[in-house]
Design brief:
- Helices cover 79% and strands 4% of the residues.
- With 200 residues, the protein is mostly helical.
- The protein has a two-stranded parallel ribbon with strand order 1-2.
- The radius of gyration is 27 Å and the shape is rod-shaped.
Length: 200
């Protein structure tokens, strides 16, 4: 469900771009061997010493992101089901009141006001629960986004230690970039291998 994980993609973009630069800066301070190795590879392949990742592809194929998306879809479905139940109850109560009014079922003003008060309470309870469910959903979505961002960011830093790239860019941030610089498949493979290992 692309709509659900799109915010993850947008927020992860900045982290992913920064990860390559941060990892490169850390490596340059701590150890120049990986960078030297990457320089040789870049020179051999006649490619610049930077790469890029298609984040949409990463999020579509990364098992952790897919698991979170499925969880968010389940939560959304449950929330919508609960609210439909409230709506049906409110409609049923309103229909009962209307039927009583049409058939002179209210013998006193007090009896009508009592039913109206009951309907108002039901509406207030439905609105309160809707707000609670929505707030919980948003918090869960933000946490899922953070977890995916942190996971990708940590992996990119680790990934770049053995490559020594000067930068790893987000593809969407470029107007054009040589397809030969694409390391998306490597990143997806590494992310899933690490995630599957952690799940066992």
């Amino acid at each position: 469900m692309k709509k659900l994980y799109r915010p993850i993609a947008m927020a992860a973009a900045a982290l992913l771009i920064g990860a390559g630069t941060l990892a490169s800066c850390n490596d340059s301070k701590q150890d120049t061997k990986p960078a030297a190795k990457a320089d040789k590879v870049a020179a051999k392949d006649n490619l610049p010493n930077y790469r890029y990742v298609d984040l949409d592809t990463v999020l579509a194929k990364y098992a952790l992101a897919k698991d979170y998306n499925e969880e968010m879809m389940r939560m959304q479905s449950s929330m919508e089901s609960t609210m439909r139940t409230h709506e049906k109850r409110l409609q049923s109560q309103a229909a009962v009141m209307q039927n009583k009014m049409n058939n002179n079922g209210y013998l006193t003003r007090e009896s009508y006001e009592q039913d109206q008060s009951s309907l108002n309470s039901m509406q207030a309870e439905a609105q309160k629960q809707a707000a609670t469910l929505q707030s919980n959903f948003e918090q869960q979505a933000l946490q899922a986004q953070k977890n995916v961002n942190d996971s990708i960011n940590a992996f990119i830093e680790e990934y770049n230690k053995s490559r020594g790239y000067d930068a790893i860019f987000f593809k969407a941030a470029t107007l054009y970039i040589n397809p030969a610089l694409d390391v998306t498949d490597e990143v997806v493979e590494g992310l899933n291998a690490r995630y599957n290992k952690l799940k066992k």
